[in-house]
Amino acid sequence: VKEKVLEIARKIHRSRVPRLFIETLGGFRVIRGDTVMREDGWDRIQPKQLLKAIVSYGTKNVPKEALVDQLWPAARPKAAESNFKTTLQRLRKSLEPKIDKDFSSSYIHLKDNVVSIDAELCQVDVDRFLLLLRNGEKKEKAGEVKETLLAYNDAIEMYKGDFLPEEFHIPWADGKREELRGR
Hints:
Layout: H1 2-16, E1 20-23, E2 29-32, E3 35-36, H2 46-56, E4 62-63, H3 64-71, H4 77-95, E5 108-111, E6 114-117, E7 122-124, H5 125-141, H6 145-158, H7 171-182
Parallel strand pairs: 1-7
Antiparallel strand pairs: 1-2, 2-3, 4-6, 5-6
Helix pairs in contact: 2-4, 3-4, 5-6
């Protein structure tokens, strides 16, 4: 009974959390509900960098070690681990200033050393862009010309510019940028 009550409470809590839209194509910005996050809403620069790195690695099941290696390459292992934990907490707090202590972060999950962005509460433009391309490819293989054109046109509309153009000197962003540009 207690587990059922907790599950119902979790569902109620999640229904009240504003949705996030994370834009990376043509520039980075996060929209919480209907409000664009301002620069002063971020607890330092590192949490924003961590979010960008998570998105560049695919938004779900991102190995924590990959993020640590990219963001703190010169740090000793204990220091890098501490930096990651602190930065993850700051990212969660930046995205969700009033985190419910009973449910933890609604948007960013860490389980078994992998990081994921909650797909139900967060929409990421890159994920949507890639889904539209896959749909277009599937329709093209099926010979559905009109549906193919619609899917590809929607993908073109979604692509507002290069992936994280402000991060032109960071290898993990460069790789994703080239991949998306090629698509």
